[in-house]
């Protein structure tokens, strides 16, 4: 199934945040297909790939889909439209059952589902910093039915591409900083025409 790197909403050609995510066991990987209407779940132990279609009423895939540690369930974030906030869904492996998951208030996107049952989410507070990035927080919930709780505020400039260690004590993120300065560069060896 063709996947990560689907066209984005802005139309610049690639959606680099639509990345594949590993299960905590390392036996499964899940990702949205190019059309963002299907999820591929690859089982490396069995050497199989299953495809889960997104029902029309849940919208299209948004950001990432995260497999449970054993690959039998998925946490998917979707959008019903370009101006709608993301919604979290618990998807049972075959895709026949979808259940909406209440995450923290605002837009929350899945990051990881650890072996100990904790599901980690990045919450976008919707407030911009002085340098253009938004304030983000790391939240967690015990399983898909647990209550979401704040785990840590992410450093200013952290982008949505967040990854955390298996014990959730360390993390990495893409750094985003927008400045309104103008930079002028000289082109070495250029001649006036």
Defining traits:
mainly beta; four-stranded antiparallel β-sheet; 193 residues; globular; 14 strands
Descriptive notes:
This protein has 193 residues and is mainly β. 0% of the residues lie in helices and 46% in strands. The protein is built from no helices and 14 strands. A four-stranded antiparallel sheet has the order 1-2-3-4, with no helix packed on it. A hairpin with a 5-residue loop joins strand 1 and strand 2. About 7% of the residues have low confidence.
Query: What is the mean pLDDT?
Result: 81
Encode the helix/strand succession as letters. EEEEEEEEEEEEEE
Spatial order of strands in the largest sheet:
1-2-3-4
Low confidence ranges: 5-17
* Gyration radius over CA: 19 Å
Biggest sheet overview: 4 strands, antiparallel
Tally of helical runs: 0
Span of the ends, CA to CA: 51 Å
Q: Summed up, what is this model?
A:
The protein has 193 residues and is an all-beta fold. It has strands spanning 21-22, 28-32, 38-43, 48-53, 60-67, 73-79, 87-92, 98-101, 107-113, 118-128, 134-142, 149-153, 158-164, 171-175.
């Amino acid at each position: 199934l063709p996947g990560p790197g689907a066209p984005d909403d802005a139309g610049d050609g690639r959606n680099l945040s639509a990345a594949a995510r590993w299960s905590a066991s390392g036996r499964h990987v899940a990702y949205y297909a190019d059309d963002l209407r299907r999820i591929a779940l690859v089982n490396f132990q069995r050497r199989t790939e299953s495809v889960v279609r997104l029902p029309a009423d849940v919208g299209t895939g948004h950001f990432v889909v995260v497999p449970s540690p054993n690959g039998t369930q998925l946490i998917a974030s979707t959008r019903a439209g370009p101006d709608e906030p993301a919604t979290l869904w618990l998807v049972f492996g075959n895709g026949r059952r979808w259940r909406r998951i209440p995450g923290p208030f605002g837009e929350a996107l899945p990051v990881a589902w650890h072996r100990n049952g904790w599901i980690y989410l990045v919450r976008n507070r919707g407030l911009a910093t002085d340098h253009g990035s938004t304030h983000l927080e790391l939240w967690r919930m015990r399983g898909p039915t647990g209550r979401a709780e704040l785990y840590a505020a992410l450093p200013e400039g952290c982008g949505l591409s967040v990854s955390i260690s298996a014990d959730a004590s360390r993390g990495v993120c893409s750094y985003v900083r927008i400045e309104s300065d103008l930079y002028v560069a000289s082109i070495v060896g250029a001649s006036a025409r």
